């Protein structure tokens, strides 16, 4: 650990010490309007140190493109899949995986779509990936059913969150503590034995308030396993919140929040897709070789937050947090040393291996299943001090802070060998824990941040700078016995990065704003990586217009990479070592984002809301090189970056009466490459375009009870979501859900 980092940790642990400005309380907009007594509202508005865009006025002042999906918008379709929620936001790219959104692959402005490892993901303003510095591609994502709102930041606004600023930041806002006794119960059932049970209840007193919340999700799955069996999942999620607020007569307003969470998941999911011919014949088939594939996870969250108004112009928000995550994905890895991706790509070449995963009898020890057993933790303290002051006619809102953070990924994996007999897997060799991979990756980080929001006449100027100092260590232990008594190697890396950014917004009038921003994009390497940090210069220019019935935004962006980095993960597949990173050299990703919202029924008896968002993207490498990263291979300058469609389109229209609603949404995803290249896309490297429709209805039986339904993939399109990590993966077929929501 560096001397600078040790000193910072000591300072951060002192009482009232400032600690990072970027993400103090993203939930504070929700809390400022829904969680606190009226006497505290004005204080909390100043205490909110993350721009949560709950009003058009705030969006208009933002120096960069930003989107806020509120509770009313989320409830229109009642999606429990974050992929479907984010489709409506321009500049956000999604690669589906298992059809339920449990392990989303999200990118922003071409940042990459593998396990969200190129964006910053937060819940209530706090980093939520199990190891956000050491292993951001880990397999946990917050449960969408309990989210109150969603915030997406792009452009220079994303520098505020960090550490990953190449694309943007995604912040999920959980259910707020109510201002009075209240609650909700949501029950739904649907296709393939799916069930959702979600409920919360909370109360508020003069000084104490709280909330408890629980979610249960399950389904049998939509894939048909050879020989029978479930292909779905079970998920349980529990959250408790306790709040203390000072009395209205207190000299300084204070608030303390305790948040505890626990999430468990048991999912019969696999990385084994299908060959071209098998997908064409039976797209929802699962081979017998994946019968034992299963992932079990456990996530725990501890968070303590303190807000204090030191004076009329100075406030301080401090958050201490810790998350713990354990996972074991037991799944087919290879057959007689041939990777499953190679088998499915070349079933004729590997005819015997293909026959064995399809259920034909095999030799003993032919099929290798891996215990991908890993554990993670992340902990830290972050704080932001806000200072309001004026210089002449300009008003300032200065944020100063620091984050001290530590996280770890611990891999302790082994391999078991099986024989296929009579269409079933029979264990023939049981591996000892730690004999396949036995290593630990550690990250310690210090993040400093300063940003000033300057309002001067019609101008809003936001200069800011971020400093990241990261110590990375990877320790490799001997796999001979699975013990940790022999260290084979230890690789230590120090990364320092200064990340400046500036944005400006000019308010042309009451309805029109023009904005522009430029910032440095940065993505740190992982522990033990030989790759350089991912770096870029990101610029944008746009305008937004809004009236009571109309809102519109048009943005152009260019992300100019001096070094694009690829990361080998189990979800990308290929014959590479998990965790290895690859330098991709220069690349340029540019595009146009457009969004439009209008209510044709304004002032009429029936509302007719209409929304449209469009993204055009041009993403290409600007240098030539050869890489062992499978998605890149031999790259020539001008090749298109894979898994980035050129065209994305979302449109929705609804009818809303006093007690009923009907909504229809369409999502178009253009064709995309799975391997870098240019010109026409070879069939084996192409994912075809698809147009998906979703329908939702709602009927309010009373003021408290609503009946609702939705149909996802209304036209029952059969489509491929990805060719990674092994074979073709199908999207969710037509799925019907019926439910009721009771509020009190």
Helices and strands in order, then pairings?
Elements: H1 3-12, H2 28-34, H3 41-47, H4 56-61, E1 66-69, H5 71-77, H6 82-86, E2 92-95, E3 105-108, E4 120-123, E5 126-127, E6 147-154, E7 168-174, E8 182-190, E9 194-204, E10 208-219, E11 224-225, E12 233-245, E13 254-267, H7 276-281, E14 285-286, E15 294-309, E16 314-335, E17 338-339, H8 340-345, H9 351-357, E18 367-391, E19 394-421, E20 424-429, E21 437-456, E22 459-477, E23 487-507, E24 512-523, E25 534-546, E26 550-563, E27 565-567, E28 581-583, E29 587-599, E30 609-621, E31 625-626, E32 634-635, E33 647-656, E34 660-669, E35 672-673, E36 686-687, E37 690-700, E38 705-712, E39 720-722, E40 729-730, E41 735-743
Parallel strand pairs: 4-7, 11-14
Antiparallel strand pairs: 1-6, 2-3, 4-5, 6-7, 8-9, 8-41, 9-10, 10-12, 12-13, 13-15, 15-16, 16-17, 16-18, 18-19, 19-20, 19-21, 21-22, 22-23, 23-24, 24-25, 25-26, 26-29, 27-28, 29-30, 30-33, 31-32, 33-34, 34-37, 35-36, 37-38, 38-41, 39-40
Helix pairs in contact: 2-3
């Amino acid at each position: 650990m560096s001397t600078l980092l040790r000193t910072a940790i000591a300072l951060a642990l002192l009482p009232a010490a400032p600690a990072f400005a970027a993400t103090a309380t993203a939930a504070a907009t929700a809390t400022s309007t829904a969680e606190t007594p009226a006497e505290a509202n004005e204080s909390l508005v100043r205490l909110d140190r993350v721009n949560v865009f709950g009003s058009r006025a705030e969006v208009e002042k933002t120096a960069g493109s930003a989107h806020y999906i509120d509770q009313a918008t989320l409830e229109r379709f009642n999606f429990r899949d974050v992929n479907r929620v984010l489709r409506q936001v321009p500049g956000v790219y999604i690669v589906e995986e298992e059809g339920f959104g449990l392990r989303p692959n999200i990118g922003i402005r071409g940042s990459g779509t593998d396990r969200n490892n190129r964006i910053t993901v937060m819940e209530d303003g706090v980093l939520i990936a199990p190891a956000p510095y050491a292993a951001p591609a880990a397999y946990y994502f917050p449960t969408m059913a309990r989210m109150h709102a969603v915030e997406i930041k792009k452009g220079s606004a994303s520098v505020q969150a960090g550490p990953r600023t190449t694309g943007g930041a995604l912040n999920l806002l959980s259910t707020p503590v109510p201002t009075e006794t209240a609650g909700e119960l949501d029950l739904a059932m649907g296709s393939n034995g799916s069930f959702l049970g979600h409920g919360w209840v909370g109360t508020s007193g003069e000084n104490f308030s709280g909330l408890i919340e629980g979610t249960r999700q399950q389904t049998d799955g939509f894939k048909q396993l050879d020989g029978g069996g479930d292909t779905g999942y079970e998920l349980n999620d529990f959250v408790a919140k306790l709040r203390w607020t000072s009395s209205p007569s207190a000299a300084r307003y204070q608030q303390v929040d305790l948040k505890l969470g626990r999430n468990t998941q048991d999912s019969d999911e696999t990385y084994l897709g299908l060959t071209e011919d098998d997908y064409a014949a039976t797209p929802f088939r699962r081979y017998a070789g994946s019968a034992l594939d299963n992932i079990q996870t456990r996530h725990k969250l501890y968070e303590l937050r303190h807000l204090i108004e030191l004076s009329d112009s100075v406030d301080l928000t401090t958050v201490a947090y810790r998350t713990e995550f354990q996972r074991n994905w037991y799944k087919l890895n290879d057959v007689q040393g041939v990777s499953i991706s190679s088998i499915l790509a070349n079933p004729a070449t590997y005819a015997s291996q293909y026959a064995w995963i399809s259920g034909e009898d095999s030799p003993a020890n032919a099929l290798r299943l891996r215990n991908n057993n890993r554990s993670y933790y992340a902990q830290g303290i972050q704080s932001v001090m806000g200072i309001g002051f004026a210089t002449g006619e300009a008003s300032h809102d200065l944020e100063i802070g620091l984050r001290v953070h530590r996280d770890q990924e611990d891999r302790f994996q082994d391999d078991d060998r099986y024989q296929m007999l009579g269409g079933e897997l029979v264990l023939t060799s049981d591996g000892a824990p730690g004999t396949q991979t036995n290593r630990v990756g550690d990250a310690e980080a210090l993040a400093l941040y300063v940003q000033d929001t300057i309002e001067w006449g019609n101008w809003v100027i936001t200069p800011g700078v971020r400093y990241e100092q990261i110590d990375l260590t990877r320790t490799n232990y001997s796999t001979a016995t699975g013990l940790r008594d022999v260290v084979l190697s230890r690789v230590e890396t120090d990364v320092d990065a200064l990340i400046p950014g500036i944005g400006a917004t000019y308010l042309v009038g009451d309805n029109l704003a023009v904005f522009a921003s430029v910032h440095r994009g940065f993505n740190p390497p992982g522990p033990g990586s030989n790759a350089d940090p991912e770096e870029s210069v990101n610029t944008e220019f746009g305008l937004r217009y809004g009236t009571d019935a109309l809102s519109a935004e048009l943005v152009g962006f260019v992300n100019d990479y001096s070094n694009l980095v690829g990361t080998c993960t189990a979800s990308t597949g290929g014959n590479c070592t998990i965790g290895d990173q690859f330098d991709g050299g220069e690349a340029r990703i540019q595009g146009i984002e457009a969004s439009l919202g209008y209510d044709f029924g304004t002032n009429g008896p029936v509302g007719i809301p209409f929304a449209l968002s469009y993204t055009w993207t041009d993403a290409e490498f600007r240098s030539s090189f050869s890489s062992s990263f499978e998605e890149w291979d031999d790259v020539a300058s001008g090749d298109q970056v894979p898994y980035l469609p050129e065209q994305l389109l979302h449109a929705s229209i609804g009818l809303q009466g006093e007690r009923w609603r009907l909504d229809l949404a369409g999502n178009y995803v253009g064709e995309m490459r799975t391997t870098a290249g240019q010109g026409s896309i070879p069939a084996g490297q192409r994912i075809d375009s698809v147009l998906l429709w979703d329908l939702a209805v709602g009927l309010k039986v009373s003021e408290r009870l609503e009946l609702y339904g939705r149909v996802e993939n209304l036209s029952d399109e059969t489509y491929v979501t990805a060719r990674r990590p092994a074979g073709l993966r199908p999207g969710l077929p037509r799925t019907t859900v019926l439910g009721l929501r009771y509020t009190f």
